[in-house]
């Protein structure tokens, strides 16, 4: 596993060059790849020059470019652009991409929604597989995110693994977020059942204290190890035992962090990861 930076996830605005500078300055081992910016730079300069910018920094995940949930025309147009972007990401050496799956719908029943996801994602993941990529699907755990919807959908780790299996291309796994693992009320023993290929990408956060798990709200979170509500040391001990070796990215939706200057937010973020690494005995 490695400490990965996604500037937008902590409310910091940065293009690729600035993100790389921040990663080096604050001690992040990796950075997410903005595939559209990389594509533009590769056209204007060269792929080798883009690669050279990343010297000493690992690529985390690349930004998922397909409008999979939109109107058919928009979906088809973005799907048509995917092969070139997937080829570029592969040439750059970045093989992980991810997106999140809404846990409910007001229009589609569970079965209709399941079929819709399989139908939309299978062509995507076939293209990704052709270029060696894995796709991580993120389940959304909080009860509050689905309570008012007409129809529920997948919101657990096992449910998302089932959807990945139904897509059936062999390169679909989880974007595993500690927050959603906690709010879906999954267990450490559930985690221990995973295989390395089940986990494509990891988000880490903590939860506000004094709020029942049933009442947690998705966009109100805390920095890792800020409250101790989520058992992050055990979470990462098990991920290490499972054999996950990919990026770990902070995504706290923290008002406190948003109010900081960029440098303060970056320092607070890497400090929180350092604490988790120490608590879990990671190296």
Named at the architecture level, the CATH assignment is: Alpha-Beta Barrel
Tell the overall outline.
Answer: globular
CATH class category: Alpha Beta
Looking at the chains present, what oligomeric state does this protein adopt? single chain
Poorly predicted spans: none
Distance between the termini: 9 Å
Give me the Rg, rounded.
Answer: 18 Å
What's the rounded overall pLDDT mean? 97
CATH homologous superfamily grouping: Divalent-metal-dependent TIM barrel enzymes
Helix content, binned percent: 40-55%
Count of individual helical segments: 11
**H/E series, N to C?**
EHEHHEHEEHEEHEHHEHEHH
Can you summarize the main beta sheet?
Answer: 8 strands, parallel, barrel
Extended strand count: 10
Domain count: the total is 1
Q: Please list the strands of the largest sheet in the order they lie side by side.
A: 1-2-3-4-6-8-9-10
Q: Per CATH, what is the topology?
A: TIM Barrel
Structural class: alpha/beta
Tell me the fraction of residues in β-strands, as a range: 15-25%
């Amino acid at each position: 596993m490695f400490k990965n930076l996604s500037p937008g996830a902590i409310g910091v605005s940065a293009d690729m060059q600035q993100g790389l500078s921040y990663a080096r300055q604050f001690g992040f081992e990796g950075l997410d790849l903005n595939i559209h910016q990389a594509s533009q730079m590769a056209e204007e300069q060269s792929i080798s020059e883009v690669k050279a910018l990343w010297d000493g920094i690992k690529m985390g995940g690349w930004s998922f470019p397909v409008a999979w949930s939109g109107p058919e025309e928009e979906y088809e147009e973005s799907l048509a652009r995917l092969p070139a972007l997937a080829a570029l990401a592969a040439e750059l050496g970045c093989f992980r991409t991810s997106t999140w799956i809404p846990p409910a719908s007001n229009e589609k029943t569970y079965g209709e929604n399941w079929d819709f996801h399989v139908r939309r994602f299978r062509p995507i993941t076939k293209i990704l597989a052709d270029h060696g990529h894995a796709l991580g699907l993120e389940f959304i755990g909080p009860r509050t995110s689905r309570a008012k919807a007409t129809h529920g959908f997948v919101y657990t780790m096992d449910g998302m693994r089932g959807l990945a299996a139904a897509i059936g291309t062999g390169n679909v796994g989880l974007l595993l977020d500690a927050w959603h693992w906690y709010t879906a009320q999954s267990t450490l023993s559930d985690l221990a059942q995973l295989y390395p290929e089940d986990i494509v990408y990891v988000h880490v956060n903590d939860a506000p204290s004094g709020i029942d798990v049933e009442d947690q709200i998705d966009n109100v979170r805390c920095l890792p190890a800020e409250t101790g509500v989520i058992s992050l040391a055990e979470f990462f001990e098990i991920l290490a035992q499972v054999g996950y070796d990919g990026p770990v990215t902070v995504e706290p939706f923290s008002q406190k962090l948003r109010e900081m200057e960029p440098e303060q937010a970056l320092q607070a973020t890497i400090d929180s990861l350092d604490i988790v690494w120490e608590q879990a005995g990671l190296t």
